[in-house]
Structures are given as C-alpha cells and as structure tokens.
C-alpha cells in the first residue's frame, strides 16, 4: 500500500512513519503489539522507516497510549478539549498546566460492529441510531463498566472492549437501532463526565476539537452537544481531511520528531516517567536500490 501510494502521488518521501495495526495492548503486562513490521516497508522501498512507537513509553512505566495529544498540541487549532472518536474515544486537555489524556470509552468499534451485522460498514450520519430509543437497562450496565472508574492515565485494548462490552451490548435483547442509540448516549455521557470533572469552576464555555470517524456521525455529535449543554460547547470547524486523517498525520509527526531527536511522546499523557523519543528506526539498506 505504501508503494502504491508513492507511485500514485509520484512522490519519494524522505521518511516513512509506520504505526501498524494494534492487535494486542495490555499496559498492565507491559505489552503491546502492532502488526505490519517497519522492516518490511524499509526493505521494499529503501526509505528510512520509523515504527514501534509504543514500546519505549511502556518501558518507562507508561500506558503506551494515547499518543494523539502530540498532534493535538502541535497540529490543531487551540481548544480546551481534543476528542478523537475512533474505534476508541480518547481525549486530551490541559489540567493545572499539564497535558492530560486518556482513553475514555469504546466508540466506533462497537457502533460499527453492530451495523456490520446487517452488511453496513458504518451507521451513515448516525441515522439508524437517531431512529432508536434509549434502553435504560443497557445504558445503566454500560455506565457501570469497571474501566470507567479507573483514574487516568489509562488506555483501552480492543480485546478488552470485545470481551467486556460487546457481550453486554449484543446480548442486551434490544433492537439494533436502540443499541446504537443507547451506545451513542453512553459515549456522550462519559465525555461529559470527564470534562466536567476536569474543568475549572469559573469556565463559562468550552471549545472542542473533534476528529475521527465518529465526528461524521451526526447523531453522536448531537448527543455530545446535548450532554455538554450546560457548558455552552463550541465545536471548532475542521476540514474533512483533518477529521479523517489526524491520526495518520500524528504518526508522520512522530516519525519526523524522532529523526530530529526531539521528544515525540508526552509523558504526562501516557503516565511514563518523562517525555521521550519513541520509535525504532530501520535505515535505508542500499544507496542504489529503487522501488519498481
């Protein structure tokens, strides 16, 4: 895919930053696995490739996540809270002069899996969710999930979401639309709880920068605005490209900072001892090789 992208765009980048797909993440065991090895990319393209961005942070006592606050701080307009509505919902903000971050709760991983069962990749604009009703019993179970009670810094594993939450949702007995509706309300509820617990009492309004696929879910966005109505929320206008590709830009930024020998992980966000330079570099292996 990298090779095809370079050919299509007629570019030869100076550096590739390669995150890979996380299939296992357990910070309590100090383990995280991203498949799709950077060495393969470097070998096939003969372009320096930086990968394995989470391992150093975990070796330094951190969660290995979230990494997104770096892009929030350096690439996006100034906001009080940066929210990413991806497979997992995460948030970052400044608290008493220190950048804080956490995985708040599951998000699209549950929503998408629900509609995958009827052959859809996602709930377009949240139309199905909007047509449902709140299932009080399911909502109460979701709100009581033990992970939600843990203090931050904290991070979620996809496997944990599937083992803990998916059975709770799929076996609830609710209809599809009601499950989607209820889960959107749950995400909004948890974001409201985190924001309200972190705000200074004299703040009269909050500015939100929201990215990730969930930002295109109009019903979910409406739920978030309603849950934060008392705080007069202002959602900053971001382009579709920024919303969709912020995390890709984040990894590119992390690779760039690695090569410049500058910190690319914020320790106060992940819980590690210090800000640090993360990543493993696979340099070019030949000065003459060209990809075909």
Itemize the secondary structure elements and their pairings:
Elements: H1 2-9, E1 16-18, E2 21-26, E3 31-35, H2 38-45, E4 49-51, H3 55-59, H4 69-75, E5 81-85, E6 88-95, E7 98-106, H5 108-116, H6 127-130, H7 136-143, H8 158-170, H9 176-198, E8 206-211, H10 218-227, E9 233-235, H11 240-259, H12 267-270, E10 280-282
Parallel strand pairs: 1-4, 5-8, 8-9
Antiparallel strand pairs: 2-3, 4-10, 5-6, 6-7
Helix pairs in contact: 5-9, 7-9, 9-10
Terminus-to-terminus distance: 13 Å
Q: Roughly how many Å is the radius of gyration? A: 20 Å
Overall CATH class of the largest domain? Alpha Beta
Strand order of the largest sheet: 7-6-5-8-9
**CATH level-4 homologous superfamily of the largest domain:** ATPase, nucleotide binding domain
**Approximate strand percentage:** 15-25%
- Characterize the largest beta sheet: strand count, sense, and whether it forms a barrel: 5 strands, mixed
What's the architecture of the largest domain in CATH terms?
Answer: 2-Layer Sandwich
Number of helices: 12
Characterization of the model:
The chain contains 12 helices and 10 strands. With 292 residues, it is an alpha/beta fold. It has 2 domains: 2-58 and 245-282, 2-Layer Sandwich (Nucleotidyltransferase, domain 5); 77-237, ATPase, nucleotide binding domain (Nucleotidyltransferase, domain 5, 2-Layer Sandwich), CATH 3.30.420. The strands form 3 sheets. It has a 5-stranded mixed sheet. Strands 1-4-10 form a 3-stranded mixed sheet, with helices on both faces. It has a two-stranded antiparallel ribbon with strand order 2-3. A hairpin with a 4-residue loop joins strand 2 and strand 3 (31-35). Helix 7 packs across helix 9 (176-198). The longest helix is centred in the middle third of the chain and has 23 residues, at 176-198. It is globular and about 60 Å long.
């Amino acid at each position: 895919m990298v090779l095809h992208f370079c050919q299509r765009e007629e570019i030869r980048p100076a550096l590739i930053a390669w995150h890979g797909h996380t299939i296992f993440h357990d910070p309590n065991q100090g383990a995280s696995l991203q498949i799709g090895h950077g060495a393969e990319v470097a070998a096939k393209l003969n372009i320096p490739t930086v990968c394995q961005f989470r391992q150093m942070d975990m070796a330094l006592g951190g969660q290995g996540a979230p990494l997104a606050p770096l892009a929030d701080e350096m690439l996006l307009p100034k906001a009080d809270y940066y929210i990413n509505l991806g497979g997992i919902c995460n948030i970052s903000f400044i608290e008493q002069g220190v950048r804080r971050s956490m995985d708040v709760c599951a998000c699209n991983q549950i929503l998408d899996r629900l509609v995958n069962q009827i052959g859809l990749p996602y709930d377009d604009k949240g139309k199905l969710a909007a047509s449902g009703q709140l299932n009080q019993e399911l909502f109460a179970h979701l709100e009581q999930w033990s992970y939600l009670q843990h203090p931050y810094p904290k991070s979620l594993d996809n496997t944990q979401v599937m083992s803990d939450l998916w059975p709770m949702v799929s076996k609830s007995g609710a209809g599809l639309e009601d499950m989607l509706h209820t889960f959107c309300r749950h995400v909004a509820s948890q974001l409201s709880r985190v924001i309200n617990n972190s705000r200074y009492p004299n703040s009269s309004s909050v500015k939100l920068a929201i990215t990730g696929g969930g930002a295109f879910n109009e019903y979910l966005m409406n739920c978030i605005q309603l849950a934060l109505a008392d705080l007069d929320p202002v959602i900053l206008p971001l382009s579709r490209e920024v919303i969709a590709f912020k995390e890709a830009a984040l990894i590119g930024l992390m690779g760039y900072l690695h090569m410049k020998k500058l910190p690319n992980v914020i320790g106060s966000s992940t819980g590690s001892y210090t800000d640090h330079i993360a990543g493993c570099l696979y340099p070019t292996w030949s000065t003459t090789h060209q990809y075909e």
